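Hi Y.,

Following your request, here is the sequence exactly as I used it, all 289 residues.
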Amino acid sequence: MTVNINTGNSKKHIIAPTKDTTTIDIFYLSVGLYSVNLGCDGEIQNSVTLSKTNTMKKFLVIIAIILFSPKLIGQDPALLENDWYLEKIIMDSEEYERPYPNFQAILNANTEILIIDHSTCEEGFGSMIQYVGTNIFTIDDSSVVLIGVCGDPDINAFMQFHYQIYLEDNNFAKNPFTYTIENTGSYKTLTVINGDGDVAIYGDQLLNAETFTAPAFKVYPNPTTDYLFIKSQGDLSAYQLYDLNGRKVQKSNLSGTETRMDLSKLPSGLYFLRLYSEETSYTYKIVKE
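Below is the corresponding structure, written out as tokens. Let me know if you'd prefer a different format.
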């Protein structure tokens, strides 16, 4: 980094101990003001004006900020100030929303690392991040992926869609990423678009269960030893039952508003029941004793 100080009669150059190519031009004006213009590779990014009073202290603070945070020039500070909760994924013109209201998928970014955290399943990945332009970043191919504990096929599928926003086959980054942050007053929205045009939409708050339509099904008894009864407000169309390994162990097309499932021949354990009607679908955890 090069710092140019222009007093009007002479110009001094200071080479700062960093590999960054940022050049800083500081002009001392006759009216007693410093004007600091920050530029990266010759492009002016910002300007700051200081009063002559206590100028040296302020000058040193600004130089320290520039030396140690040049990569954040042009970034929206809200990106680093919030945990961002995933709301929706758009891939190939298809929209995918969270499978459950309480399912958490979080993006967290700082000056060095991007973290995608699926805390519900103790799963996620982390990657080194570089800010390369105004509201643009890239991540490394060598991301660290932590495999979690969820067996729900809908959750696993949604997590894979989330990973595919950032990585191809969990290895190759889909650079570059652009982002925008919109502030509606009480709620902020972060939109991330990868190099393929896929979109992930986040909010700075986790939308609670009341934000979603209540499930239109009643499933009982749960836990059960043999039979499971299902009632729906509308006509049922199908169900699918999965074990903890994601294997489909039962399925059936349905009609009417009530049905009975026979689980007596299944081993004891935890299962995931996906119910479908003409209006909606929902997944339940079922305990077979």
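Helices lie at 55-68, 78-81, 153-166.

Thanks again,
Q.
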